[in-house]
Amino acid sequence: MSAPAHDAGTPFDIDDVARAACRALPGPVWDFIDGGSGTESTLAANRSALGGICLVPRALTGVTRGDCAGELLGSRVSAPLAVAPMAYQRLVHPDGDLALARAARSAGTVYVASMLSSHTVEEIAGTGAETWFQLYWLRDRDRTGALVERAEAAGCRALVLTVDVPRMGRRLRDLRNAFALPPTVTAANLDTPAGEARSTTAHTARPGASAVTAHTAETLDPTLNWADLAWIRARTRLPLVIKGIMDPGDAARAVEAGADAVVVSNHGGRQLDGALPSISALPGVVRAVDDRCPVLMDGGIRSGADVLKALALGATGVLVGRPALWGLAAGGQEGASAALRLLHTELEEAMALAGCGDLAAARRLSVRTAAGAQVADEGTAR
C-alpha cells in the first residue's frame, strides 16, 4: 500500500514556499524579487555562510519547548522576527503590503513598511500591524521630513533609515529583462497630489536597462552622510533604526549619533556584490555596539535554525525578507502567514532541541564552524 501524497499546497519548509512563488509569478517579476547584484556572489554567500555555522546543543536541560516570545524596540513579538521592508509588493499579489502586514499582525511580528510600498503608510498602519516605517533619503529634504511626520501621525513605532543605497546595485537579471513596473504599481507614499505630473520613469521600459534603477537614481539622494543622520535624529522622537551597517566602526558611530538600533545587512545581496555575508559581519558589530543598543540582522534567513544561529551570535532579532514575500506571492495573506508560521515553528523546535527554553538561553548557545573552530567573536552576547 503506497503512502498518501501530501497536499501540494502545504509548505513544509521555506524552499517549498519559494517554489510555489516561482510557479505563481511571471519570470521577470520572479527575477526582480529573487535576484541579486552582479554575479550574485553575496546573495549566495549569505546562505553558504549560515550553512557553515553549526549550533552546539546543550543536553539534560529539561527543556520541553522553546519559548521564543520577546520584545523588539518596545514591541512585544511572538518570536524575534520582523518582516523586512520590501518595495512594490503589489507586483506579487493584488493585496500587496496590506496582506503582508495583516499576516505579520496575525503572526505577532513587526511589519516594516517600505517607503516604496504599493500602499500608503496610513493604509498599512491601519491594518493594526505593529508597524515600523522604512525611510530612504530623498533628494527633496522637505519631502523626507514630511514622510517622517506622516509615519508618526499614522502610529508607526519606529523609523528605519536604510543607508546602503547611494545608488542601486547593478542587477543583471533586471537589465536582461528590461524590467519596468506595470502602471498599476506605484510608490504610493511618493505619489503626487492630483493634478500634478507624476514621474513615469519606473514604468518606462528600455532595452538593457532597469526602470526601477532609473527611478531610484532620480528619487534618492546619493550624498546621505552622518550630518543627515543628525538631522533626522533631531527631527523625530521615534526610535531610530539604522539599516545597512556592516562595519563595526560604522556601528559604533551610529550609536554615538543617536541610533536606537542597527541592522546588519548587505541588502539581501542586492547592493555591493562581493560584500561580506551579514551573518559573518554580525559578531563584530555586536562587539562594537557593546550592549548600547539592539542589533538586528537580515540576509539569507530561511529557517528557524538560521534565526537561532543569529541569536547565538548576538542578534536581538532578525528581519525576514524574501520568505515572507514568497508566501505573499504563493497565497496572499494566508500564504504569507504560513511562511511566518513555519519560521516560528522551526525556531521553537530548534530551541527545544538545542536545550534552550527561552531567548536568553538561545543567546548563550555556542556555535562553531563545521570543522569545529570557534566562530569569530563568539560569546559577545554571553
From TrEMBL:
Keyword Metal-binding: no
Pfam families in alphabetical order: FMN_dh (PF01070)
Positions of the FMN hydroxy acid dehydrogenase domain: 6-372
Domain of life: Bacteria
Cofactor(s) needed for function: FMN
Record-level Gene Ontology MF annotations: FMN binding; oxidoreductase activity, acting on CH-OH group of donors
Recorded family membership: Belongs to the FMN-dependent alpha-hydroxy acid dehydrogenase family.
Descriptive protein name: Alpha-hydroxy acid oxidase
